[in-house]
Amino acid sequence: MTTTPERTRTPQGSAPVSLGLPRRLIEFDLDGDQVRVPEGATLLDACRDAGKDIPTLCYGDTLTPKNACRVCVVEVEGARTLAPACSRKAEPGMKVRTDTDRARHSRKLVLELLASSTDLSTTPHVAGWIREYGAEPDRFGPDAATVAGREAKVDNDLYVRDYAKCIMCYKCVDACGDQWQNTFAIAVAGRGFDNTIAVEHDGPLPDSACVYCGNCIEVCPTGALSFKSEYDMRAEGTWDEDAQTETTTVCAYCGVGCNLTLHVQDNEIVKVSSPHDNPITRGNLCIKGRFGYQHVQTRE
Amino acid sequence: MDLKYTDAKPTDDERAAVDALLGPAPSGWEGGTRDDLDLRWAKGGHEARDRRDQLLPALHAVNDRIGWISEGALDYICRRLTIPPAEAYGVATFYAMFSLKPRPAKVLHVCTDIACAAKGSAALCAGLEDRLGPAGTPKDGVVWQESPCLGLCERAPAALAIQAGDEVATAVIAPATAEAAVAAATAPETAPPEATELEAVPQAQAGDPTLSLLSRIGTVDPTDLDDYRAAGGYTALRNAFAIGPAAVIREVTDSGLMGRGGAAFPTGRKWQATAGQPDAPHYLVCNADESEPGTFKDRVLMEGDPFSVIEAMTIAGYAIGAHQGYLYLRGEYPRALVRLGNAIDQARARGLLGDNVLGQGYAFDIEIRRGAGAYICGEETAIFNSIEGQRGEPRSKPPFPVEKGLFGKPTVVNNVETLANVLPILTRGAEAYRTGATKLFCVSGALGKPGVYEVPFNESTTLRDLIDLAGGATGSLRAVLLGGAAGGFVRADELDIPLTIEGARAAGATLGSGVVLAVDDTVELPRILLRIAEFFRDESCGQCVPCRVGTVRQEEALHRIADKTGADAAADIALMREVGQVMRDASICGLGQTAWNAVETAIDRLGAYE
Ligand SMILES: Cc1cc2nc3c(=O)[nH]c(=O)nc-3n(C[C@H](O)[C@H](O)[C@H](O)COP(=O)(O)O)c2cc1C
Ligand code: SF4
Ligand code: SF4
Ligand code: SF4
Ligand code: FES
Ligand code: FES
């Protein structure tokens, strides 16, 4: 480990840290190259700095890693098991291999296990990874247990919970709970393969503590949580991301000044997201910013 | 924190059950009598929130009194403890012993696990179906259900009857007939008393003078502190006070004691690492969750020699600088609960626990926390979440418990048997202990005298010695499951394995939690493997993909090949190997990492499906 002024000795491509103070750098071996990252950086940070593409599903840029999906595992020399890159911090002198047969086997199997037990049709990137890793979800047979048959929960006008598509990444729970929203409307219920995300007694959302901030939708990596508008358009076959434009503006409902990204298709706002790099709000909004467009559009 | 509660109301009985635990509700804000609509939103102070760890005891209180947990009862608990209803629901649905749907007050848990299967649990279940109807369907105020190992394997087949009410009544029926099980389930108060703990220790029955950890079982009254002291009890604690905490840790380190909970980690090193942490307070957790199929040694120690567990915990607490210890007891161990509760009360009354232990100015107390039917809660970080009132899911490591454990503080987790060894270390000294160290084995299955056996923990003891000691195989021995469901099988011609950590490792096996389960040819191997796979699928916490889905895929494949051999089974075996590899390599915790061990060894060592 070396202590150096960050700017002068950072390897190419690594995120510059704007503090002028000397920061401890961690030096370790990544796929045979010596790399340096600021103390506290994860193996995923280091991989991304080095331009390596590691798949992730449960990792969220605004959340504490839960490392539940295990699709990002890499091999750390000397360790009995593989390590999740998204949460394992770089340590001086460690030797990390991202592309060993063992790591690739685990990623492939995780993709197969997930794709055979969940509807991943709206999960971005996953089809590409399945091809890349040669995953064959069908090999568990036609009777393989799956949650893909679960009925979508359509119990309010604003958003839909389609747990047939849920991979149990815990991100919505963390966003609704103490990491962002502090509403605690949803939690993981049940155990093992039968677990699910639920409000108390697995009831409807309108009976729960939900305040419809949509911050869970913002972090959901699979489309299990989606705007009612998106859900309906997908059902009608009219959802067309290529035909959509995204415009980021400032929310006008109050003085906080949150950033809204309006997704517009055919002159209609079809969903609202919020940039994760906003240093204050980090992608989080309230009901007015997230769903207020419905009033604008459907004023009667 | 603003929380929104539900409109459901508790019944008077439910409210009384919770109030008996938490005290009467101080105001309408905590679920008292006021109930206008705005009270659906309540502000809870820090004090209420700090009681989150009372969630599991509160769920038990309701379940014990009523038999199940209604929406009104759950909401009342949430208000009393300032817990979001969704989270409380998530916790309550995690545990197998709780029901959130109405069910009869009388529940009969019938073990269908490996040792009981070897002793006729299938016939027992058939008899119960005749009398009580199918499992899970109430009849005549009783419902029966299949259970994983109840930790009563020496008396297989086993059943446990629990009757909710103002006073919970329980009855252990083992060995069980369908008739006796139905009678006990219908009226547990009048069931015949269960066998004494002495009957679980054949060596003690024979008066074996070499016993150390088991020496008091059957000879010292487990309910009487004076009897315990007359037999040398509390000498070890006095010795500990005489030499001081640092020297206690040195003795334990020099003794070479390794954890007996399964991972065989050096105990002295764990204590040292915790004692040296600047963060305070430190905690001690005694892991008495004992749910590994085939394991029952901790139960026998706790039932037969409860004061020794309390004394050993006090010494451990003193060594690591803890003032509070938690004993996390498996929910299905009613007799151990009574014995330990009594031992703690007596120790407290006599100044052996409390503000000033033995007048030495050291404060230490112990609280028992009951598990509620979740094998995973024996994992060393899941146990923290369970005690804290969260779902019993393992945490990711690092940070390790010695640094951030219970309530985020430095914590030692030790198995019951590990702690029991601390007493001879401190009475005899590390050197003498080292040369005479012993290990407990839980011997069950197709053997003449199943029970807990204490044998020298060195190369002089082989698996064959132990099996001979236990009366030899009753039928034609096919294999031995060593180390539990998370361990593996060895063949009947491999009995010369020395029963040491190194000996087992050299043979590609593990001692795990000390399970030695003999399998003869009366139960088909594929059935046993299916039961093991079902166990892991049932007990997976569901947090990580390799284990949550992998255990399901493993069980499915075993179903497909249950009646197949050779080439017909080859494709599914290859598939299981691949699934097994990802479970072993990429699961978060030991449950997923070991879920394929037993099946793998059955295929590779025993030639199952050949
Ligand atoms: C799924 C799982 C269940 C476990 N159950 C128990 C248990 O019931 N009792 C126990 O002492 N250790 C259990 N362990 C091992 C503990 O994690 C831990 O290693 C042990 O309690 C440490 O105590 P020791 O060092 O005294 O052995 C379990 C581990 C796993 C992965
Ligand atoms: S919309 Fe907001 S309050 Fe409702 S569940 Fe999602 S994160 Fe929680
Ligand atoms: S609903 Fe979405 S965010 Fe929530 S656990 Fe499922 S996949 Fe993750
Ligand atoms: S390995 Fe299994 S039990 Fe352990 S954390 Fe993962 S899902 Fe839970
Ligand atoms: S992305 Fe790392 S474990 Fe899910
Ligand atoms: S009590 Fe039935 S297998 Fe242990």
From TrEMBL, chain A:
<dbReference type="InterPro" id="IPR054351">
    <property type="entry name" value="NADH_UbQ_OxRdtase_ferredoxin"/>
</dbReference>
<protein>
    <submittedName>
        <fullName>4Fe-4S binding protein</fullName>
    </submittedName>
</protein>
<keyword id="KW-0411">Iron-sulfur</keyword>
<dbReference type="GO" id="GO:0051539">
    <property type="term" value="F:4 iron, 4 sulfur cluster binding"/>
</dbReference>
<feature type="domain" description="2Fe-2S ferredoxin-type">
    <location>
        <begin position="24"/>
        <end position="102"/>
    </location>
</feature>
<dbReference type="InterPro" id="IPR017900">
    <property type="entry name" value="4Fe4S_Fe_S_CS"/>
</dbReference>
<dbReference type="Pfam" id="PF22117">
    <property type="entry name" value="Fer4_Nqo3"/>
</dbReference>
<dbReference type="InterPro" id="IPR027467">
    <property type="entry name" value="MopterinOxRdtase_cofactor_BS"/>
</dbReference>
<keyword id="KW-0408">Iron</keyword>
<feature type="domain" description="4Fe-4S Mo/W bis-MGD-type">
    <location>
        <begin position="244"/>
        <end position="300"/>
    </location>
</feature>
<feature type="domain" description="4Fe-4S ferredoxin-type">
    <location>
        <begin position="197"/>
        <end position="230"/>
    </location>
</feature>
<dbReference type="GO" id="GO:0016491">
    <property type="term" value="F:oxidoreductase activity"/>
</dbReference>
<dbReference type="InterPro" id="IPR006963">
    <property type="entry name" value="Mopterin_OxRdtase_4Fe-4S_dom"/>
</dbReference>
<dbReference type="GO" id="GO:0046872">
    <property type="term" value="F:metal ion binding"/>
</dbReference>
<dbReference type="InterPro" id="IPR050157">
    <property type="entry name" value="PSI_iron-sulfur_center"/>
</dbReference>
<keyword id="KW-0004">4Fe-4S</keyword>
<keyword id="KW-0677">Repeat</keyword>
<keyword id="KW-0479">Metal-binding</keyword>
<dbReference type="InterPro" id="IPR001041">
    <property type="entry name" value="2Fe-2S_ferredoxin-type"/>
</dbReference>
<dbReference type="Pfam" id="PF04879">
    <property type="entry name" value="Molybdop_Fe4S4"/>
</dbReference>
<dbReference type="Pfam" id="PF13510">
    <property type="entry name" value="Fer2_4"/>
</dbReference>
<dbReference type="InterPro" id="IPR036010">
    <property type="entry name" value="2Fe-2S_ferredoxin-like_sf"/>
</dbReference>
TrEMBL record, chain B:
<dbReference type="GO" id="GO:0046872">
    <property type="term" value="F:metal ion binding"/>
</dbReference>
<dbReference type="GO" id="GO:0010181">
    <property type="term" value="F:FMN binding"/>
</dbReference>
<dbReference type="InterPro" id="IPR037225">
    <property type="entry name" value="Nuo51_FMN-bd_sf"/>
</dbReference>
<dbReference type="InterPro" id="IPR001949">
    <property type="entry name" value="NADH-UbQ_OxRdtase_51kDa_CS"/>
</dbReference>
<dbReference type="InterPro" id="IPR041921">
    <property type="entry name" value="NuoE_N"/>
</dbReference>
<keyword id="KW-0479">Metal-binding</keyword>
<dbReference type="Pfam" id="PF01512">
    <property type="entry name" value="Complex1_51K"/>
</dbReference>
<dbReference type="Pfam" id="PF10531">
    <property type="entry name" value="SLBB"/>
</dbReference>
<dbReference type="Pfam" id="PF01257">
    <property type="entry name" value="2Fe-2S_thioredx"/>
</dbReference>
<dbReference type="InterPro" id="IPR037207">
    <property type="entry name" value="Nuop51_4Fe4S-bd_sf"/>
</dbReference>
<dbReference type="InterPro" id="IPR019554">
    <property type="entry name" value="Soluble_ligand-bd"/>
</dbReference>
<keyword id="KW-0411">Iron-sulfur</keyword>
<dbReference type="InterPro" id="IPR019575">
    <property type="entry name" value="Nuop51_4Fe4S-bd"/>
</dbReference>
<dbReference type="Pfam" id="PF10589">
    <property type="entry name" value="NADH_4Fe-4S"/>
</dbReference>
<dbReference type="InterPro" id="IPR036249">
    <property type="entry name" value="Thioredoxin-like_sf"/>
</dbReference>
<dbReference type="GO" id="GO:0051539">
    <property type="term" value="F:4 iron, 4 sulfur cluster binding"/>
</dbReference>
<dbReference type="InterPro" id="IPR011538">
    <property type="entry name" value="Nuo51_FMN-bd"/>
</dbReference>
<keyword id="KW-0004">4Fe-4S</keyword>
<comment type="similarity">
    <text>Belongs to the complex I 51 kDa subunit family.</text>
</comment>
<feature type="domain" description="NADH-ubiquinone oxidoreductase 51kDa subunit iron-sulphur binding">
    <location>
        <begin position="526"/>
        <end position="573"/>
    </location>
</feature>
<keyword id="KW-0408">Iron</keyword>
<protein>
    <submittedName>
        <fullName>NADH-quinone oxidoreductase subunit E</fullName>
    </submittedName>
</protein>
